[in-house]
Amino acid sequence: MLPSSSGHHSATRAIDPLPLRLIKRAVLILFGPLYFLFVAFVPLICAQRKGFRGWYWRLVKRSCSRLLWLLSIRAEMRPEEKAALAADTDSIIVVNHRSHLDGFTLMHVVPDAKWFTFAAKSEFWNSRLLRTGFDGAGLVPINRESGSLAMQTLTNAVKGMAARRSVVLFPEGTRAKTRSLGEFKAGAILVARETGRTITPIIIHDSDQLLPRGKYLPRSGKIRVQALPTFVCDLTVSVDQDLARLRALMMAAFEQ
């Protein structure tokens, strides 16, 4: 069964009174661009300092938390799931994708003890400003002109990562266009098999109710994030069978 309409209504119930929401949006409009520029330019000044990456990582996470607060959006995850993520090692994180809010939400709810990063198109590294910031945040550049090259680049990056650091992959490849999960691509399974890492599946609920496709102003409300038990690839079965098992596990949680 699909998520019920009553669950959707609960997710989109405003968490702040209207006057407070208006004040927060005004603060975001007035000071948000300046704060964004500060976060973007910091790596140009401080990237060579000792311990920069850890400090900058926390700055980016706090920036995402502040953005959600100013948008009157509350993102929640159960304490026991946060504790499991904090102790998680040697994994790849796999997340469903429903909204532009998903990345900010993930940055907010995942505990600081769990380091993770995203893959991004290598073209972004052509800009010095973006290159320095992306390198500071530990993003992985992926050349998408060749699928095999992109997969090899990603695999090599994961092999070189510290145990407590994980790359985040969206197996649907893009934001889902239906109320259900989209079809999964095999990239996460292939990388996990090649590197020997496990997969940590995460489900984001209701972010598309607050910011659907084609909309630019998010609604106030609540996003629920659910960390599922560790998924271990079965090397005795085919990649497609492993992929189907992973999707079934995430679908069961998504439809609850």
TrEMBL record:
UniProt-listed InterPro entries: Plipid/glycerol_acylTrfase
Protein's recorded name: Lysophospholipid acyltransferase family protein
Domain of life from the UniProt record: Bacteria
Keyword Membrane (UniProt): yes
Pfam families: Acyltransferase (PF01553)
Keywords: Acyltransferase, Membrane, Transferase, Transmembrane, Transmembrane helix
Cytoplasm is among the record's keywords: no
Lineage: Bacteria, Pseudomonadati, Pseudomonadota, Alphaproteobacteria, Rhodobacterales
Residues annotated as transmembrane: 26-47
UniProt-recorded Gene Ontology molecular function terms: acyltransferase activity
Start and end residues of each Phospholipid/glycerol acyltransferase domain: 91-207
Pathway recorded for this protein: Lipid metabolism
